[in-house]
Amino acid sequence: MASKDRKPSLLLIAHGSRNKQANEDLFWLAEQLQNQGFELVEPAFLELAPPDIITAGRSCVSKGAVDVLMVPYFLAAGVHVREDLTEARDTLSKEFPDVTFRLAGHLGRHARMVDMVLARIDEAQNPAGD
């Protein structure tokens, strides 16, 4: 487990797309989180794009991670969040019993989600330069 003064390694997980541009948001987010002080941030995709979750989890371990927080970049707790990500966590935990893999909550009904949606509505109604 990480000490209180050391942040966990992050394994960011998105669904993945065949469209490379769609996947770039996750890489951008990983960079932003590193800028916030997380030393190790690995993006991963459930399907359709590399790296997959297991590969990225192994990468975390190979870089020295002992506490990995798996962060779903999903809006809803569908089958992927409830089953697939739990299965990936369990697979990594069995492969690396000395490393802690924890699964964070999906984005979903977080209080700040309303603020983000309102910001996008405001942007659409008041485009820059109007």
Explain this structure to me?
It is a single chain. The chain is built from four helices and four strands. The chain has 130 residues and is α/β, with parallel strands linked by helices. The protein is globular and about 50 Å long.
What is the mean pLDDT?
90
Let me know the number of strands. Answer: 4
Number of helical elements: 4
Spatial strand order of the main sheet: 2-1-3-4
Principal-axis shape equals globular
Write down the CATH topology.
Rossmann fold
The major sheet is characterized as: 4 strands, parallel
Determine the fraction of residues in helical runs and give it as a percent range: 40-55%
CATH class: Alpha Beta
The proportion of strand residues reads 15-25%
- Topology as H/E string? EHEHEHEH
Coarse structural class: alpha/beta
Gist?
By secondary structure, the chain is α/β, with parallel strands linked by helices. The chain is built from 4 helices and 4 strands; from the N terminus they run E-H-E-H-E-H-E-H.
Write the layout of secondary structure elements.
Elements: E1 9-14, H1 20-35, E2 41-45, H2 53-62, E3 67-72, H3 79-95, E4 100-103, H4 111-125
Parallel strand pairs: 1-2, 1-3, 3-4
Provide keyphrases for this structure:
globular, alpha/beta, 130 residues, 4 strands, Rossmann fold
